[in-house]
Amino acid sequence: MRKKIVAGNWKMNKDCDEALLLFKEINSLLQNTTAKQVEVIVLPSFIFIRDFVSLSFKIAVGAQNCSTEDAGAYTGEVSAAMIRSAGASYVIVGHSERRSYFSETNSMLSKKINAALKNNLIPIYCVGETLNQRNSGNHFKIIEQQITEGLFHLNNEQFKKTVIAYEPVWAIGTGNTATTSQAQEMHAFIRKVVAQKYGNDMANSCSVLYGGSCNAQNAKELFACPDIDGGLIGGASLKAKDFVQIVQSF
Ligand code: 13P
Q1: Which residue of 41, 80, 190, 226 could cross-link 66, Cys pair, CB 3.0 to 4.6 Å?
Q2: Which runs of consecutive H residues, i.e. helices, occur in the chain?
Q3: Is there an atom of ligand 1 within 6 Å of 214 CB?
Q4: Separation of 64 CA from ligand 1 center, angstroms?
Q5: Collapsing DSSP states into helix, strand and coil, what is residue 52?
Q6: CA of 157 relative to ligand 1 center, distance in Å
Q7: Residues 19-40: pLDDT tens digits?
């Protein structure tokens, strides 16, 4: 059985008071639900991680990025070791906003994956094509390249700990969710790419999340697809009731 996961990527939203309030709301709503075997993760700004870990009942906490480096003179960077020491258990690597606004390349991201694993953080590795890439028929090639160059240096033990998130860039923050057939098709393709390198068992046990305008209305349909193991949620994770409803969409 693959792990089902719903992860809220808060991006650069909420001040200290707002963030605490939202986290407490999600925490208490989740306590009163009987969510089935779902790993719920909240990924806020770095500065909230420690507080959230100490408040959390069932929610795992993660970061949205980490440095490629272990420590040293890298002003403004946050290392995977620091994130781990704050109590986080996950880190997003290669979100499309980091790839496009901060020029993160697959090769740089492969180093971030190593930094995460070395520090016992589970990386959530994001892949996704732009609308141009899809329209020109290059989407499968792009996704394969992102996976190959970002992850395929890992050995079996390391790969086993990694989560993949498919987030088509054209679906992020736009309200244009991928159709279930577009999402399912790509998730099945990702599993095929993984199987070619690590074998069928590994491909079948790897959690692959969907992200991109996933919300309380469409989550059920998306999560019902055979190769979709949950969601990486942006906008809808900033509303406690919506987020919890997504958690209950399996
Ligand atoms: P939205 O859910 O706002 O489209 O964002 C998705 C995302 O980027 C999650 O990482």
Answers
A1: 80
A2: 16-31, 49-55, 80-85, 96-101, 106-118, 131-135, 139-151, 156-160, 180-198, 200-205, 219-223, 240-247
A3: yes
A4: 12
A5: helix
A6: 29
A7: 999 999 999 999 877 667 899 9
All structural domains of the chain with their residue ranges: 5-247
Name the nearest CA neighbour of 112 among 11, 102, 169. 102
Residue with CA nearest ligand 1 atom 9: 234
Give DSSP secondary structure letters for 87-109.
Answer: T--EEEE--HHHHHHS---HHHH
Report CA(176)–ligand 1 centroid distance (Å).
Answer: 11
Residue 139 has pLDDT above 80, yes or no: yes
Which residue among 11, 176, 243 is best mutated to probe the pocket of ligand 1, counting the most ligand atoms within 8 A of its Cβ? 11
Global confidence as pTM: 0.98
- Best CATH choice for the domain 5-247 from the list 3.20.20.70, 3.30.70.1400, 3.40.50.620, 3.90.1150.10: 3.20.20.70
